[in-house]
């Protein structure tokens, strides 16, 4: 039985401003600052009948600043916009706890983060038809990962730490049409597509080759669990309180590991995640 006590407090301040530059032009900028404090203590597991405890009075506190800026232009039924903002991905509690006795976590493990940018346009008319197209890019710094470490004459260990950076870019497009069908009925249909390329900029990964740990920079390798395409379509019919619909989604193949392994080994822990489709009625 595990015994853990976790405490987390978060406080944030947000400041933003909007400026009407000219007719149809709107600019905005701001900043969000967040302070997160957390602590944990207790028993995490048993090894050979002995308790494994967290470090006494384990605490973390950080102050995060996230700026953003954007601009938009509206004319008639069209809207053009772009924005740039920062983001962060906090270290999870599960990442601070080694899964095995031979695993370890770097004491310098820190939150990941980066920035994202978007630019696009949209159209909507009174007849119920609309569409939008958005270009996006995402730069991810201090991505958390693991590498294999073997001290001289020692046991191979799996060390979790901040490994490097990745980059993703792509386009999202979607369209929807809806119309009334009598005084109480309405139907609608939509289609959406996401095309994306995501790869590592600078990332050192580790694996075992013939029992020997190998470290290599996998710059240019595709990001795991990042399909190059996602396609969705659906229809819906409404009559008063009754709703009926159908959706279909298709997802391209992706890799399950940072090494982009094509041929899965006997244990099937890594390899290609094949393309798949999902239908919902």
Rg for CA atoms: 24 Å
Largest beta sheet, briefly? 14 strands, mixed
Assign the structural class, choosing from mainly alpha, mainly beta, alpha/beta, alpha+beta, or little secondary structure: mainly beta
What number is the mean pLDDT? Answer: 84
Give me the strand/helix succession: EEEEEHEEEEEEEEEEE
Strand runs, count = 16
Rough outline = globular
How big a fraction of the residues is strand? over 45%
Low-confidence stretches: none
Number of helices: 1
Structure summarized in a few sentences:
With 281 residues, this protein is mainly β.
Q: What does this protein look like?
A:
With about 280 residues, the protein is mainly β. It has one helix spanning about 95, and strands at about 5-20, 25-45, 50-55, 60-75, 80-90, 105, 110-125, 130-150, 155-180, 185-210, 210-215, 230-240, 240-250, 255, 270-275, 275-280. A hairpin with a 4-residue loop joins strand 9 (about 155-180) and strand 10 (about 185-210). The radius of gyration is 24 Å and the shape is globular. The two termini are about 40 Å apart.
Task: Give a topology summary.
Blueprint: E1 3-22, E2 25-47, E3 50-53, E4 58-75, E5 78-89, H1 93-96, E6 103-105, E7 112-124, E8 129-149, E9 157-180, E10 185-209, E11 212-217, E12 229-239, E13 242-251, E14 254-255, E15 272-273, E16 276-280
Parallel strand pairs: 6-9
Antiparallel strand pairs: 1-2, 2-3, 2-4, 4-5, 5-7, 7-8, 8-9, 9-10, 10-11, 10-12, 12-13, 13-16, 14-15
């Amino acid at each position: 039985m595990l015994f853990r006590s976790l405490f987390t407090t978060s406080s944030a301040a947000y400041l933003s401003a909007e400026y009407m530059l000219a007719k149809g032009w709107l600019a905005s900028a701001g900043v969000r600052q967040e302070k997160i404090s957390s602590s944990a203590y207790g028993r995490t597991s048993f090894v050979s009948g002995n308790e494994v405890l967290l470090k006494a009075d384990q605490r973390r506190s950080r102050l995060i600043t996230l700026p953003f800026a954007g601009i938009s232009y509206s004319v008639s039924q069209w809207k053009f916009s772009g924005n740039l903002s920062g983001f962060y991905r906090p270290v999870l509690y599960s990442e601070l706890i080694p899964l095995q006795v031979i695993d370890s976590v770097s004491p310098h493990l820190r939150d990941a983060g980066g920035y994202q940018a978007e630019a696009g346009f949209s159209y909507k008319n009174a007849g119920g038809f609309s569409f939008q197209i958005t270009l996006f890019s995402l730069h991810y710094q201090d991505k958390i990962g693991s590498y294999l470490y073997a001290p001289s004459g020692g046991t191979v260990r799996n060390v979790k730490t901040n490994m490097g950076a990745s980059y993703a870019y792509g386009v999202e497009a979607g369209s929807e049409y809806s119309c009334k069908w009598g005084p109480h009925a309405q139907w609608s249909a939509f289609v959406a597509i996401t095309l994306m390329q995501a790869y590592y900029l600078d990332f050192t990964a580790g694996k075992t080759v013939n029992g020997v740990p190998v470290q290599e920079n996998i710059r240019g390798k595709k990001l795991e669990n990042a399909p190059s395409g996602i396609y969705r379509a659906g229809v819906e019919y409404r009559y008063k309180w009754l709703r009926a619909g159908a959706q279909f989604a298709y997802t391209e193949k992706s890799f399950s590991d940072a090494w982009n392994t094509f041929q899965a080994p006997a244990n099937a822990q890594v390899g290609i995640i094949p393309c798949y489709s999902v239908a919902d009625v």
